[in-house]
Amino acid sequence: MNALFVFLGGGTGSVLRYLAGLWIGSAAFQWATFAVNAVGSFAIGLFGGWASRFGWGEALRLSLTVGLCGGFTTFSTFSKESLALIEGGRYSLFVLYVAGSVALGIIAAALGFWISK
């Protein structure tokens, strides 16, 4: 039964990711992927903290963390866009994108977890 909740959360997260990409668009920098990964990192920290604090059931926790956040964030797109920056010779932007994404993701997850406590 938990797999159904992950499936529903994942589908919702994927649609939200698609809509965020349309809304934010693409430019010289991969803002849509950068933003959804930061927001998703914050959300997984927040949901994880709330799940622990309020004793959420396994189905709700899985639906929101593994499903929604997993479907919303996108490591594969991040990897593809990083490779495209390397292939395009945009090494400085590559370093900024990768380092900024990882640092912001960790900070956002920690902030979400901290706020939820």
Q: What proportion of the residues form beta strands (DSSP E)?
A: under 5%
| Strand count | 0
Question: How does the major sheet shape up?
Answer: none
Distance between the termini: 29 Å
Helix content: over 70%
How many H/I helices?
5
Estimated structural class: mainly alpha
Number of domains: 1
Q: Write the element-wise H/E pattern from the N-terminal end onward.
A: HHHHH
Mean pLDDT score, rounded?
A: 95
Shape designation: globular
Can you put this structure into words, describing what you see?
- The chain has 117 residues and is mainly α.
- The protein has one domain.
- It contains five helices and no strands.
- Helix 1 packs parallel to helix 3, helix 2 runs parallel beside helix 5 and helix 4 runs antiparallel to helix 5.
- The chain is globular, with a radius of gyration of 15 Å.
Give me a quick take on this structure.
This protein has helices at 2-24, 31-54, 58-72, 75-87, 91-116. With 117 residues, the protein is an all-alpha fold.
